[in-house]
Design a protein that fits this description.
Largest sheet: 7 strands, mixed
Radius of gyration: 22 Å
Number of helices: 10
């Protein structure tokens, strides 16, 4: 279930309890003093960085001016750039939290293998139904999505440093701000890292599929397989994580006989159960020796380390040699991913074995979760 452009979404909340300030779950003892004041180091895994930032933000909301500015921003936009918001504020609480955000952004880029990428942290209100209560002055909690898609509880924080356990399967009765990674920006930067690292290992060209450079390299033009429609039954996202950010890894044997991988970003795939008509190029056949290729569709769940992902895939695929006939590569790609990645990300959405250049029509994925309609499409040289 996809709803917003990064992490969370919840269904309808019962607002009658908001005036009483109740939540679903039990309030725990205050966090340790340093963490409650937002002075603890925000380091570790992506989930730990997000959680630490959420706790620091909650503590910073004890400042009235900053609290009002955050409320205004959350009501005015579906998604708020936390770094930009702190830079616009003048209160001491905002400045202190701004230092936390700057450090957390650097740590997130490191944890996700994105080099110097910054400005990844975002905040949003968990659900549209909470707007009325927030406008009326209900004090929000602050949370980050749990690392495990199957988690049954979500930890949220209040401005006094107390933690509250929310049911991951039920809607909280109190407004909740959610801190998370801008998944769209992360995927875009991640695709560049994948191409760079895979090219360094000899598994792909540095330019993206369908770029103008490939047309000039292919003489008069080149054949592609174009997605005219695509639909997912399940985007692998629980309610707290909101919109999926989907991409595909297209694999086959390059003209040099070596395995190659081409990442394809699919940022429009926001909701399961909805059909999209992107007219997007999936396979550039000028890259491949055979008129056959595979596609593995993945979903970015926030914690993906793109450089590690590229290295893992490269290590697995470099061991496969061209024996003069096409060999499907889907299983090798999936087997390359460490077991612990499957607890959260990157989530496996579906896969398509042995797509042919001549394919035209609807093709259901091996998992039965996705359906793509493909057509051959000629791209003329520029």
């Amino acid at each position: 279930m996809i709803r917003h452009r990064f992490r969370t979404a919840v269904v309808c909340a019962a607002l009658s309890a908001l005036a009483l300030g109740t939540v679903q779950g039990v309030a725990a003892a205050p966090a340790p003093p340093d963490a409650a004041r937002g002075t603890g180091a925000v380091t570790g895994t992506v989930a730990e960085i997000e959680d630490g930032t959420a706790r620091s933000l909650a503590s910073s909301l004890s400042g009235a001016a900053w609290r009002a500015l955050v409320r205004q921003a959350a009501l005015a936009s579906d998604e708020v750039d936390l770094g930009a918001l702190t830079r616009k504020a003048s209160s001491q609480a905002a400045k202190d939290f701004g230092s936390v955000v700057a450090d957390a952004d650097r740590e997130l880029a490191r944890a996700k293998g994105l080099g110097t990428a910054n400005g990844l942290l975002r905040l949003r209100l968990a659900d549209e139904s909470m707007r009325g209560a927030l406008r009326a002055g209900a004090e929000p909690l602050v949370a980050a999505a749990p690392a495990d898609d199957d988690a049954t509880a979500v930890t949220a924080y209040d401005s006094a440093g107390r933690s509250h356990t929310l049911d991951a399967r039920r809607v909280p009765e109190r407004p909740v701000y959610v801190v998370g990674v801008d998944a769209g920006r992360a995927v875009s930067a991640g695709m560049a890292v994948l191409r760079e690292e895979l090219a360094r290992r000899g598994l792909t060209a540095p330019e993206p599929v369908g770029s103008p450079d490939t047309a000039s390299a292919a003489g008069d033009g080149f054949w592609t397989s174009r997605i005219t429609s695509v639909r997912l039954s399940d985007d692998e996202e629980p309610w707290i994580k909101g919109d999926a950010e989907v991409y595909s890894l297209v694999t086959g044997f390059g003209r040099d006989g070596k395995v190659r991988v081409d990442p394809v970003d699919m940022p429009y795939l926001d909701e399961d159960g909805r059909t999209y008509y992107p007219n997007q190029i999936l396979v550039n056949w000028s890259y491949y020796k055979y008129d056959l290729a595979d596609a593995v569709m993945m979903e970015e769940d926030g914690s993906t380390d793109y450089r590690s992902l590229a290295k893992a895939i490269a290590d697995a695929l470099l061991a496969i040699t061209d024996m003069g006939a096409y060999v499907p590569l889907v299983n090798a790609v999936l087997d390359a991913m460490p077991d612990d990645w499957w607890t959260d990300d990157p989530d496996y959405v579906d896969s398509w074995y042995t797509l042919a250049r001549s394919n035209s029509g609807a093709f259901r994925g091996a998992r039965g979760n996705g359906t793509m309609t493909l057509e051959p499409y000629w791209v003329p040289a520029f």
